[in-house]
Structure formats: structure tokens, C-alpha cells
Specification:
Pfam families: AAA_33. With about 200 residues, this protein is an alpha/beta fold. It has nine helices and five strands; from the N terminus they run βαβααβαβααβααα. The protein has a single domain (about 10-200), classed as P-loop containing nucleotide triphosphate hydrolases (Rossmann fold).
């Protein structure tokens, strides 16, 4: 009698840091390298575009609950999930701790620890800088705003882009897990692409 197939819970990855720390670019590249089967949830898009809500301590924001509920839904559907954003502990610590605590699978938390001056330099060097001033960035800046979770990985500003992405992929385990969602596992288009990749790497 064969053993039933073991269901493996997907991986949750949380990438945090101040504005201009490089977290968005690193998160996008990590997801690109993983491929289909990983969902990328960007705080700015969900809060600014979907909800059109200000990130303010003067209101009781909807975004923290909305972002973590979206992450939970994607995880339940079999997606590996990367959540990215400033995600200030003042407003997000409680819901992020709960999201991690409730998730039965592996979870990895990263914090890009970049000084204020370096965040401004990186911001001004973007191909398409977002319309914020250094003064606005200073008001948002919080020094080492860690979640204080066991195993939280702090990535220093001396880490190159390549080193940062590699650290995220390896420390989270995304380099070893496989997609669990239907498209990369079952769709004919993905199967053809996988066959083509295999054929291209075979030694004649």
C-alpha cells in the first residue's frame, strides 16, 4: 500500500526596510528568479493603489489587516509568498507576528539595515525615483525597526544587490522548494517551457 502524498506548506518570506533601502528591487528579483508559483505582495501597491490609504499613525489603518489577509489567502492556495514593504512595527508588528505564528510552513524574515544617508543616495540613483523628498524620507526613517523574531536576518548596507538577493533566496529556502500552484505543475504552456529548458541544457 503506497503512502499518501505528503502536503508541504508553502514558504512565507517577509522583506522589510526603510524607504530607499532596496527591499522592493530585491524582492522583485527574488520572485523573478524563483519563477511561477511565488506571489509578491508589495505594501505600497496594496496600500496606495488598491486601498488608497495613507500610512499614518493618526488613523486606524486597514492596510495591515488587508496585506496579511491577502498573504494568508495566497499561502492557503499553495503560493509561496513574499511580502515586501517598510511595514513599520508600530502598525504592522502585531499582524505580522500573528501571520508568522499561524503559518504551519517555513517562514523567513529579512530586514535591510541601511543608514539614512545611504537610503537617500539609493533613492536619488533610481531609474525612476518616486516623488518624495529627503525631508519626507527622514520623517519616515526608523533606525533598525526589527520585528524581533527568532532567526530574523539583518542584511547590512555593505551587502551588494547580488549578495542580498542570494541571501534571501538561500536563507528562506526558496532555492530548494518547488512550485505548488496549478500553473507550473499542470499547465501545458509551463510544461512545454520546462521541456525546452531541459533540452537546451542537455549535453549532446
Amino acid at each position: 500500500m503506497s503512502n499518501p502524498t505528503k502536503v508541504v506548506s508553502p514558504t512565507l518570506v517577509i522583506i522589510r526596510g526603510n524607504s530607499g533601502s532596496g527591499k522592493t528591487t530585491a524582492a522583485r528579483e527574488a520572485r523573478r528568479r524563483f519563477g511561477r508559483g511565488a506571489a509578491l505582495l508589495e505594501q505600497d501597491y496594496l496600500r496606495r493603489i488598491i486601498l488608497r490609504e495613507h500610512d499614518s499613525a493618526d488613523i486606524d489603518p486597514v492596510a495591515p489587516a488587508f496585506i496579511t489577509a491577502t498573504a494568508r489567502t495566497a499561502l492557503d492556495l499553495g503560493y509561496h509568498v513574499i511580502v515586501e514593504g517598510i511595514l513599520h512595527t508600530q502598525r504592522y508588528a502585531t499582524v505580522l507576528h500573528q501571520l508568522i505564528g499561524d503559518h504551519p510552513g517555513p517562514a523567513a524574515v529579512f530586514y535591510l539595515d541601511v543608514s539614512f544617508d545611504e537610503t537617500v543616495r539609493r533613492h536619488l540613483g533610481r531609474d525612476e525615483p518616486i516623488p518624495v523628498t529627503p525631508d519626507e524620507m527622514r520623517r519616515w526613517y526608523t533606525h533598525r525597526d526589527l520585528l524581533d523574531i527568532p532567526g530574523e536576518t539583518v542584511i547590512e548596507e555593505t551587502s551588494t544587490f547580488e549578495q542580498t538577493v542570494t541571501t534571501i533566496l538561500h536563507a528562506s529556502g526558496l532555492t530548494t522548494v518547488v512550485p505548488q500552484t496549478p500553473c507550473p505543475r499542470r499547465c501545458p504552456h509551463c510544461a512545454r517551457k520546462a521541456d525546452q529548458t531541459t533540452a537546451a541544457t542537455e549535453v549532446p
